[in-house]
Write a structure and sequence with these properties.
16 helices; mainly alpha; 475 residues
């Protein structure tokens, strides 16, 4: 085994520097991933029309539920692989990778078929206007047909990140974003393929990045090179992968089910309002990328160090993450207040579209500090196996977001609905902060202090956290 491929800076470098350095490619990568949708929306709004922009807005929540469900499934296997890498159990890492690949591909193909069949009924269920259903339906069917490439790209990204490399997948994603933009212009502006062209551009670009990432991973990382025995189903391994993957997927689904329910409310408004909210929601996803990327790095950092029984490093990394929470929260909020209107104008020059999009992004931006606290806590919950707490924290935020959206809209109209996400984050943020403080004081801190008292050699006698939710019973 090449020694350089079994080392990770997350296990050796200073915590704050290690997490930040590891997170930068993730942040840029997430930003590039969001650019797929943003570029599609800009091209649709500018070269097809407001109707096409509104159709993409109606399709977006449904698409995100499916896509992020698959990403969550890939993410679960990555967390477990990080633990095995930290333990230097490389054979176990390959077994987890092989089983996660098999079950993930089967799940993705089956779920894609079901999703293609249900796009039209779901659009009607969300009160989508007849003028928008045609475009939204064909867009979703094409994107879902290529969902396997989205899964494979993200699966190999999480596999590579689990062994400490967050930079390699970024290269392929960056190339694919450029390809997506070029194909958007070619299919829509030159070939006049309308909304079909934006969907085809997205799928072809994802396919290209997936194959590049798979090929490079196989050649560059022997530690991730699978043989037939690693693809053989291991029941215990499948159970562990499924527990983690479903928890991550459920969390992703909760987020977008909430947005889907709210989309049904937005769709009752005129097309210009739907287009404006679509623009704002895409900007919201884009602006959240720094904290999402950072906390994904935090999850890998904590998981690797817990697996290696370097508990003090895990605790130090969590402490260091508070500086990122403060910076990202404040800067993101100020950015939405001062630049929100100008960003929305990139999508459409219609006054009603701009007004609705600006109202949405400024209102939701006011709660970014709370959002940062939530995703920071959830990153640690995932890494130490507190899966129930992780899921409950998301469930609370989404239930309140849906309920408050309808209540605030009833009381104060569209502007009231825009403030519902921030209000729901108050509940989710409070729950996450309290749960995290309990876990920190009763679990993480005692492990770190015991290790510090015993010294590194004696720390091997300490028990690492189990890959189940048993830890939550002690809290």
């Amino acid at each position: 085994m090449d020694a350089e491929l079994t080392k990770s800076p997350l296990l050796t470098a200073s915590p704050s520097r290690a997490i930040l350095k590891f997170s930068l490619p993730l942040i840029i990568g997430d930003f590039c991933q969001q650019l797929y949708n943003v570029v599609d929306a800009i091209v649709a709004g500018r070269f097809i029309g407001t109707n096409a922009l509104a159709a993409l807005g109606a399709a977006n929540p449904i698409m995100n539920i499916v896509i992020f469900l698959l990403i969550g499934f890939a993410m679960g296997g990555g967390v477990i692989m990080s633990r095995h890498f930290g333990k230097k159990d490389y054979e176990g890492l390959k077994t987890v990778m092989g089983n996660a690949l098999v079950i993930g591909v089967i799940f993705t193909l089956a779920f894609s078929i079901v999703s293609i069949c249900l796009t039209n009924p779901f659009l009607k269920l969300l009160n989508t206007k007849d003028t928008l259903i045609g475009g939204a339906d064909v867009y979703l069917k094409i994107v879902f047909a290529g969902a396997i490439f989205t899964y494979l790209y993200n699966f190999y990204c999480f596999a590579v990140r689990s062994v400490g490399d967050s930079f390699t997948p970024l290269i392929f994603l960056f190339v694919s974003v450029i390809l997506n933009a070029a194909l958007d212009v070619l299919f829509v502006v030159v070939f006049k393929m309308q909304i079909v062209g934006t969907a085809l551009a997205t799928v072809l670009a994802q396919m290209f990045s997936a194959f590049l990432c798979m090929l490079y991973t196989h050649r560059k990382f022997p530690i991730l090179r699978l043989s037939k025995r690693h693809l053989a189903i291991d029941r215990r391994c499948i159970f562990e992968i499924t527990s983690y993957s479903l928890s991550m997927s459920i969390q992703q689904v909760f987020v977008y089910v909430g947005r889907l329910a709210i989309q049904g409310l937005v769709n009752t408004y005129p097309e210009n309002v739907v287009a404006g909210v679509n623009s704002g929601s895409r900007l919201d996803a884009l602006l959240q990328t720094p904290m999402r990327g950072y906390t994904n790095a935090l999850t890998t950092y904590v998981a690797q160090n817990m697996g290696a029984k370097k508990y003090k490093r895990a605790v130090d990394g969590y402490k260091a993450s508070w500086a990122a929470v403060a910076v990202f929260g404040v800067v993101s909020t100020l950015f939405t207040v001062f630049a929100g209107k100008w960003l929305v104008m990139l999508f459409d020059d219609n006054a009603e579209v701009i007004e609705a999009g600006t109202g949405y992004i400024v209102s939701i931006g006011a709660g970014y500090m709370l959002m940062c606290i939530i995703v920071q806590s959830q990153a640690v919950f995932k890494a130490i196996g507190m899966l129930k707490t992780f899921v409950v924290s998301t469930f609370l935020s989404i239930v309140f977001r849906i309920g408050l959206s309808y209540l605030f809209e009833y009381l104060w109209g569209l502007d009231g609905m825009f403030w519902a996400p921030t209000a729901s984050w108050v509940v989710g943020g409070t729950y996450c902060f309290v749960a995290m403080m309990i876990a920190y004081r009763k679990k993480l801190l005692p492990l770190a202090k015991s290790q510090q008292d015993m010294g590194f050699k004696g720390s091997a006698a300490l028990s690492a956290p189990k890959d189940t939710t048993e830890d939550e019973k002690k809290i």
